[in-house]
Structure formats: structure tokens, C-alpha cells
């Protein structure tokens, strides 16, 4: 059973009298342990698709089943719970809380877990930081960390709740080549240990790390291809 | 997210902007402090007034001209006499006139208050002469130029001599001092009760004043249980003396001590409410300050809100977070205000001799009020924060 099942997904925005068809009928299945890159030029709908997969937004039409759970008709609170339990986000700009230690940043999703996941939050957060190689930076605040290290903290925060998928939005967009390679290597390791990753990018060499590419244009999937994960970056 | 985490989070974000937080809560600090101090002064003056009147005598009943119409005064010395003679429930009664006067004698002169009273007056006031004698019924009958002086007057005019038997002048009329009153000290309002001269009522009316009318008749009922009977008896006696028909209104006003206290403290109560309300306005303004800063804070922290939403915070979690922050801000301002108010009240008492009574209940009420201000003025910004779209919030600078 696929972990992500998108059927006939449409997302239309009305801007005054004009209707923008950001997504206009997308069908995608993503299996467990896949590493997918969603590609496309700006305005192709890839960000909209990512927001929908991440349950930050809801489709105008179509159905989305995540990890066996139908998300259509979920309330705001329901979507919040899905984001909390099933999804880990990694953003281009890291999106860490400033003046807050790495450990506390990673604990954050656990604090919003209403099902007892918050127990031993510090212990779980420490384990996640060790997994991304920051076991010695627990009490550093973002300003004291390099870009690559900040992105690792963000990845640890995404991992800490053991989500069904990790969604990465241009994860290397703010990093130099060296740091980018480090982050992509980490993603590959995580994927090889069985974690499903959906990554949005417009860079070919970053997309090359994924095992599957989905290419969007004008709100539609125009091409899909599977590849041997390279790592040319 | 549990309550203690929320409070910890709020404290951290408040301490992160120390100066801003202090300035924001300054409005609440000043508001709470001034409300408590104003009400404390009001309460203090109420208690002072009450004690002051209670110390005027026991089982006191006072007959005065009809309220607000001194011109319609028809109380005369014969009325006081009739009340004293005919009142079964009347223990003692005395007509009273008072006027400010300069007394000259001994080593100089002194500005004081001269009371024209009758011999019963001392009993009504539970007062005694310390030395010498008070004047008698006979002295009143013959308008004797005799005077009994208070301890302060004695000290001012005759610091080294025994004043008894000495002559002195009240507004140019010579009087003989027959006694000195026991020292009583200051009353609850802080005025000196020993700064007084008493002369026979008839003498005061005949020689010191132009009017024959009394300012009041003071009466002591036979017992506390008989106050009501005494009051209606006095009323009947005076109606008869003034020949009032059954339809006519009283041309005088009879009040017992409880009623006098009530009248006087109602003025103080009104004052308390007024002062408290004015101070309350500053609390309200303080609340607006909190709302203003919380709105700024919400805008500044849009990105943080987006992050929290993306990791699974529900809207109500965000609402609670910002609401807790504004309540913690206003409540800590309130606590500082309470501490300042206690210090200020103590200072007023010791430095100015003002009476300020801070009741524990009112401290609780004002702490609760500060918290309510935080909720009321924090709700709109918190709601604004919680209503954000996570996608837009994450994109904010």
C-alpha cells in the first residue's frame, strides 16, 4: 500500500475574477521508503503540491490518503495532528526558532503531541540530534551553528516524531556545494534506513540524489522517471 | 502543551525583551498601584470619620437645623431646656453654639474655638475638668462670665502659672477661668480636641454672638436600647415647642450617632469610588498598551507561528501561547503594582500621617483585575496569531 495516494488533485485559487489553476488534476502514488524529487520551474505547481502533501493546505478537489488515512474532510485540528504525527518538514530557510537551543528546537513537535509522545522529549530529541551528527551541539542556538548544521537540526526536528514521510522544500537552497553534499548524503542514509522522503527542488544535480523524479508544468505532471540514485553534486 | 510549559515559554519571551516588557507593564503597574492606594486612602478616611463620630459621645442624639437650611433655624435655648426637663429617655441635653475667637490673657493671645454649652455637655461628651470646676446651672441662668479652658489653651496662655482664677478676654469681654479640662489629645482626624474654650451657653448667646439661635442640641439617651424612643420623644417635644400642626414638616433634624456616621461616611464612600474609578482609567490605558505590544509581537513572530503550526500546533495552542504571554505580562505588572502600593501606603501613613487601609481582599481583587485586563486586551492579538495561514506565516520575513 502506498504511503501517499493522490487522486485527481486540483487546487484552484481565485484572484479576483481570475482563477489560478495551481494544480489541475494530479495523480501520484508514493511507496514506503521511496526518495522522490518533485521538480518544475517556478509557477509549475510544485510548491502547491508540497503544501498539500504536507497538509498545510487542502485541495479544491480530489482525494489524498496519507499512511492509510483519508485526509479529506479533516478539520484544522485534524490537519495539525497529521502534521504533528505523520509529517516532518525540512525547509529551505531552516525555520528554526531563534535564540532557542538545538535540543529545544528538536523537542518542539513533541511538545504538541497530545498522545503521550511528549514523554522523554529531551531524550528523544538528543537521540535525533545524534543521528544527524550533532550530538555535541545540543545547547547551541542557531546563530552559533553553520548553515549545514542548522539544516541538520531541522532534519532532526523532522525525524524526532518518527513520521511517515519527510518533506523537504529546497533543502539545499541556502547552502554552498560542500554543505549541500553533506545534507544530501544524510538524506540518502536516512532513506536507506527506511525513511520516505519527498523533496521539492528545481536543481537537477540535487534531484539526481533521488530515486524517482516527478516533473510538473502548469499544474500537471508531464514526466516521471526512475533513476539510480546518483549524487553528482 | 501543558500549563507550566506555556508559562515557562511566556516568561522566556517576556525576558527576551526586558525593556519593552517593563515599559509595557508600566501601565498596569501604575494602574494597579494607583487603584489600590486611592481606595486605601478612601477606606482610611471612612474609618477615621467613623471613629471620630463614635468618639463624640455615647448614645448621642443630635438636633440640628433642617438639613441645608440654616436660615430656617428655630432652635433656641428654651428648646434645649424643654428637652432636658420633659424627656423621659433623655439622660442629658445641652444646647451648643460655637464660634472661632481670639482669646487674650496670660502671656499672649491664641486663636481657638469657643463653645457655648450647658453643664450637661461634659456628661454627654464623657469629659471632666482636670482642675477647678465646670460652670453650673446657676452660672448659665445669670450669664456668668466664667470659662473653662482646654489643656492646649492653658498651655498657650499660661505656660508657667495655674490658670484657675485668672482673668482673660474672649473677643474683648473679660472672663474668669474656673477650670481646666482634662487633656483629651487629638481625635481620629488629627485635630486637637484640647484647643477649646467653654463658656455658659447664655453668656455666649448674650455677649459673644448676634443670633439667639443654637447650632445644635446634643443629647445623650438614657441607654443604647432606648435610642429610638428617645429620638421620637425629642421629636415630639420639639414639635410641641415650635407649635407645629400635624401636617407641618419638622423645622429641625434629629439624627442619632449611627445616622451621623452613615451620612459622613457616605461622602467618603463616594470619594473612594470616584478616586478608584479615576485610577481604574489608568489601568484601562495600561491594558491598551499591552494590546499594542502584543500586536507588534505577533507580527514580529509570524515566522515562529508558522513553524509551530507546521510541526503540529493547533490554532488553540497558538491562541493559548499568546494569551498566556499577555496574562503573565499583566499579572506580573499587577504584582509589582501591589508591592509598590503597599510601600506607598506605608509611606503615606508614616510620612503624612494619612490613614491608608489596604485590605487583603482588595489586593486579590486587583490581582484578578490585572489578569482580566491581560485576557481582555490579549485576546485580539492572540486570536490574530492563531488565525494565521501556516503557508503565509512560514514565508514571512
Note the topology.
The complex is a heterodimer of chains A (233) and B (397).
Chain A: E1 4-15, E2 18-30, E3 35-39, H1 46-53, E4 61-66, E5 69-70, H2 76-86, E6 87-90, H3 102-111, H4 121-131, H5 147-159, E7 165-169, H6 177-192, E8 196-200, H7 204-207, E9 212-217, E10 220-226
Parallel strand pairs in A: 3-8, 3-9, 6-7, 7-8
Antiparallel strand pairs in A: 1-2, 1-4, 4-5, 9-10
Helix pairs in contact in A: 3-4, 3-5, 4-5, 5-6
Chain B: H1 3-16, H2 18-54, E1 60-64, H3 77-86, E2 90-105, E3 108-117, H4 121-124, E4 129-132, H5 137-141, E5 146-149, H6 151-157, E6 167-170, E7 173-181, E8 196-200, H7 201-208, E9 216-221, H8 227-241, E10 253-256, H9 257-300, H10 302-310, H11 315-352, H12 360-386, H13 390-395
Parallel strand pairs in B: 3-8, 5-7
Antiparallel strand pairs in B: 1-9, 1-10, 2-3, 2-6, 2-9, 4-7, 5-8, 6-7
Helix pairs in contact in B: 1-11, 2-9, 2-11, 2-12, 3-8, 9-11, 9-12, 11-12
Describe the structure.
The complex is a heterodimer of chains A (233) and B (397). Chain A has 233 residues and is α/β, with parallel strands linked by helices. Chain A has one domain: P-loop containing nucleotide triphosphate hydrolases (Rossmann fold), CATH 3.40.50. Chain A has seven helices and ten strands. In chain A, a hairpin with a 2-residue loop joins strand 9 and strand 10. The model of chain A has no long low-confidence stretch (mean pLDDT 92). Chain B is built from 13 helices and ten strands. In chain B, strand 6 and strand 7 form a beta hairpin. In chain B, helix 3 packs across helix 8 and helix 9 crosses helix 11. The longest helix of chain B is centred in the last third of the chain and has 44 residues. Chain B is elongated. The two termini of chain B are 26 Å apart. The interface between A and B is medium-sized, with 24 and 20 residues.
Amino acid at each position: 500500500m502506498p504511503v501517499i495516494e493522490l487522486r485527481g488533485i486540483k487546487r484552484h485559487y481565485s484572484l479576483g475574477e481570475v482563477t489560478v489553476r495551481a494544480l489541475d488534476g494530479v495523480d501520484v502514488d508514493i511507496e514506503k521508503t521511496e526518495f522522490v524529487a518533485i521538480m518544475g520551474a517556478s509557477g509549475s505547481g510544485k510548491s502547491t503540491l508540497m503544501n498539500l502533501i504536507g497538509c498545510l493546505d487542502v485541495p479544491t478537489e480530489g482525494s489524498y490518503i496519507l499512511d492509510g488515512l483519508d485526509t479529506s474532510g479533516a478539520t484544522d485540528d485534524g490537519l495539525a495532528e497529521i502534521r504533528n504525527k505523520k509529517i516532518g518538514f525540512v525547509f529551505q530557510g531552516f525555520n528554526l526558532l531563534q535564540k532557542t537551543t538545538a535540543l529545544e528546537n528538536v523537542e518542539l513537535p513533541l511538545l504538541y503531541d497530545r498522545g503521550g509522545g511528549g514523554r522523554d522529549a529531551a531524550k528523544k530529541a538528543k537521540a535525533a540530534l545524534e543521528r544527524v551528527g550533532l550530538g555535541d551541539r545540543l545547547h547551541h542556538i542557531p546563530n552559533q551553528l553553520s548553515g549545514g548544521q542548522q539544516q541538520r537540526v531541522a532534519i532532526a526536528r523532522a525525524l524526532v516524531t518518527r513520521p511517515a514521510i519527510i518533506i523537504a522544500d529546497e533543502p539545499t537552497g541556502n547552502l554552498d556545494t560542500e554543505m549541500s553534499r553533506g545534507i544530501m548524503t544524510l538524506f540518502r542514509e536516512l532513506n536507506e534506513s527506511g525513511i520516505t522522503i519527498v523533496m521539492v527542488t528545481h536543481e537537477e544535480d540535487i534531484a539526481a540524489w533521488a530515486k524517482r523524479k516527478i516533473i510538473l508544468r502548469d499544474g500537471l505532471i508531464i514526466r516521471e522517471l526512475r533513476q539510480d540514485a546518483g549524487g553528482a553534486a | 502543551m501543558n500549563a507550566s510549559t506555556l508559562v515557562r515559554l511566556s516568561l522566556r519571551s517576556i525576558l527576551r525583551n526586558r525593556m519593552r516588557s517593563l515599559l509595557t507593564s508600566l501601565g498596569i503597574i501604575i494602574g494597579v498601584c494607583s487603584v489600590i492606594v486611592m481606595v486605601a486612602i478612601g477606606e482610611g478616611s471612612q474609618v477615621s470619620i467613623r471613629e471620630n463620630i463614635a468618639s463624640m459621645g455615647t448614645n448621642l442624639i443630635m438636633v440640628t437645623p433642617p438639613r441645608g437650611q440654616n436660615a430656617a433655624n428655630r432652635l433656641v435655648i428654651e428648646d434645649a431646656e424643654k428637652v432636658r426637663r420633659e424627656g423621659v429617655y433623655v439622660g442629658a441635653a445641652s444646647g451648643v453654639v460655637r464660634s472661632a475667637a481670639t482669646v487674650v490673657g496670660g502671656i499672649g493671645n491664641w486663636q481657638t474655638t469657643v463653645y457655648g454649652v450647658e453643664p450637661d455637655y461634659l456628661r454627654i461628651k464623657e469629659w471632666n475638668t482636670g482642675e477647678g470646676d465646670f460652670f453650673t446651672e446657676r452660672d448659665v441662668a445669670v450669664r456668668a462670665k466664667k470659662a473653662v479652658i482646654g489643656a492646649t489653651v492653658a498651655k498657650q496662655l499660661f505656660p508657667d502659672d495655674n490658670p484657675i482664677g485668672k482673668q482673660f478676654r474672649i473677643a474683648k469681654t473679660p472672663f474668669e477661668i474656673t477650670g481646666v479640662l482634662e487633656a483629651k489629645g487629638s481625635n481620629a482626624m488629627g485635630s486637637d480636641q484640647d484647643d477649646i474654650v467653654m463658656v455658659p451657653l447664655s453668656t455666649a448667646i448674650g455677649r459673644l454672638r448676634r443670633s439667639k439661635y443654637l447650632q445644635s442640641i446634643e443629647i445623650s439617651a438614657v441607654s443604647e436600647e432606648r435610642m429610638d424612643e428617645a429620638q421620637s420623644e425629642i421629636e415630639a417635644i420639639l414639635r410641641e415647642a415650635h407649635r407645629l400642626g400635624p401636617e407641618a414638616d419638622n423645622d429641625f433634624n434629629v439624627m442619632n450617632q449611627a445616622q451621623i456616621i452613615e451620612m459622613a461616611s457616605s461622602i467618603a464612600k463616594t470619594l473612594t469610588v470616584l478616586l478608584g474609578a479615576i485610577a481604574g482609567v489608568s489601568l484601562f490605558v495600561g491594558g491598551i498598551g499591552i494590546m499594542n505590544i502584543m500586536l507588534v509581537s505577533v507580527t514580529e513572530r509570524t515566522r515562529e507561528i508558522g513553524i509551530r503550526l507546521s510541526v503540529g500546533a493547533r490554532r488553540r495552542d497558538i491562541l493559548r501561547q499568546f494569551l498566556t504571554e499577555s496574562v503573565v505580562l499583566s499579572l506580573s505588572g499587577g504584582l509589582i503594582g501591589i508591592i509598590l502600593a503597599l510601600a506607598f501606603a506605608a509611606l503615606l501613613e508614616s510620612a503624612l500621617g494619612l490613614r491608608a487601609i489596604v485590605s487583603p481582599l482588595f489586593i486579590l481583587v486587583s490581582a484578578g483585575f490585572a489578569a482580566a485586563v491581560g485576557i481582555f486586551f490579549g485576546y485580539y492579538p492572540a486570536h490574530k496569531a492563531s488565525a494565521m495561514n501556516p503557508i503565509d506565516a512560514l514565508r514571512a520575513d
